[in-house]
Design a protein that fits this description.
The chain is of the alpha+beta class. The chain has 2 domains: about 120 residues, Triger factor/SurA peptide-binding fold, CATH 1.10.4030; about 100 residues, Chitinase A, domain 3, CATH 3.10.50. The chain is built from 11 helices and 8 strands. Strands 3, 4, 5, 6 and 7 form a 5-stranded antiparallel beta sheet that branches.
Amino acid sequence: MTIRPAILLRAAAFAIMCAAAAPAQAQQLVGTINDSPITNFDVEQRAKLNRALRLPTTREGLLESIYEDRLKLMETKKFGIAPSEQDMYGMIGRTAAKMKVQPQLLMNTMQKSGVSMEVIKEHFNAEYSWMAYVRALNKSLDISQSTIRAELAKKSQKGAADYTIRQIVFIVPASGGPAALQNRMREAEGLRNRFTDCASGIALARQLPDVAVKDAVTRTTATMPEQLAEALSRTPVGRLTQPGRTTSGLEMVAVCGKKDTSDSEAAADAVRQELLSVRYDQEAVRLYREVRARAVIVNR
């Protein structure tokens, strides 16, 4: 039976709500933003959330995080933007992808940190609402062909290509310690030395214990992290990249195919989406600054 990620996220959400059902402690008002009260409990919860999300945890940073979420929800509510539960979980997935962790792991981290489900909903609903708001105001936003061609030319100099790759993960238990990690590193290097083509190399990997071999995927350098693109460019077809540490163990990437895509339609579209994302982010910052400048904040 396959368990869908959304179901796992909802189960974790229920566990968070149960954990948050403890008796409420006396709360002290620390300030307001547009008459919306902020208590010491809000600040404590935000500290837990920000640690889980790897965001600033200074008092100023915590208050600004609260201001931002409240203001985004206030502004987008005026336009009838009301995220569904699915939208919220989708935003958790997007955030997890940026952090390079699984959505369920991010939910577990927030749960173990003691973040209430109410705070989680407020934050990710604010993120989704603002994204929808910015895109609705910028429906006509596009990237010129000359800009796309210029960006493609830059990427062509770096060797833009489509890679067919397979991830191979040597699983390392969290309780294994340094010795276990060193042993797995030796095993990973051993496979890397014997890996000379994907057909026979994948078969070798599957014979090893506690090794996960993922399905083949095709990715373009225009949409992958620069560090990964550089690692693939240094790796001949049929060979493995150097082992790298991940949350689940040691990961190597098998380069099973490579095709130059400097002038392809797919590469142009990938560059367009990448540049659009940057423009949307810039608009999101600009629009929030306007809302923040109008806010009435009272600190106590």
